[in-house]
Design goal:
By secondary structure, this protein is an alpha/beta fold. It is about 35% helix and about 20% strand. The radius of gyration is 16 Å and the shape is globular.
């Protein structure tokens, strides 16, 4: 048996464009993000995936709602475990803001940011739950760049020492015989 999991980063927001740390701030898609989500949705066909999950943050939910229409699934199941990294005091700030407030070495300070390990642990826990909950099914998840990237780095460290996930990019993992494989990474051919 094999479980396939498709990971999608949400469409672009104004804060993405402005270079602001979004974290768990609930920022909606902008017009370009809506267009990206619509293009993404056209990539999928009715019945191609069995179930659709999303982060509970609005930018992911909005992206998932476009995909839901193409897939014909009854509902988008939201789950806070696949939220973006909590950026603590950095939420809403740009790089320039952070340097002005805390200095060039702000990343060495404790600004209340969730750890990379905690984010990866949440992501891996969710994937393991999907394998148990949906054996031999195709699960699609709309989430966030840091959550997806850090999960991949910890799940498949030989393959992903670094990651960058584009808005609405699709990454596909399969779980077979107790092993994870990446079939597709950061694909944006729909844009």
């Amino acid at each position: 048996m094999a479980t396939t999991i498709g990971l999608i980063r949400h469409g672009v927001t104004e804060w993405n464009r402005q270079g602001r740390a979004q974290g768990v701030s609930d920022i909606p898609l902008n017009d370009d993000g809506m267009k990206q989500a619509e293009a993404l949705a056209m990539r999928f066909t009715y019945g191609e995936w069995d179930v659709l999950y999303s982060s509970d943050l609005i930018r992911a939910r909005q992206t998932a709602e476009f995909v839901q229409q193409s897939l014909g699934v009854a509902t988008v199941i939201t789950d806070e475990r696949v939220r973006e990294i909590d950026c603590g005091l950095m939420e809403g700030t740009t790089e320039e803001d952070r340097i002005a407030r805390w200095g060039a070495h702000y990343h060495e300070l404790d600004l209340g940011m969730e750890t990379r390990q905690s984010v990866a642990k949440r992501g891996i826990s969710f994937l393991e739950h999907m394998v148990n909950q949906h054996p031999d099914q195709r699960v699609l998840l709309v989430s966030h760049g840091a959550l997806i990237g850090m999960t991949l780095q910890h799940l498949l460290p030989r393959l992903f020492s670094k990651t960058y996930i584009d808005n609405t990019a699709l990454t596909i993992l399969t779980y077979t015989n107790n092993e994870w494989e990446c079939q597709l990474y950061n694909c944006t051919k729909h844009l």
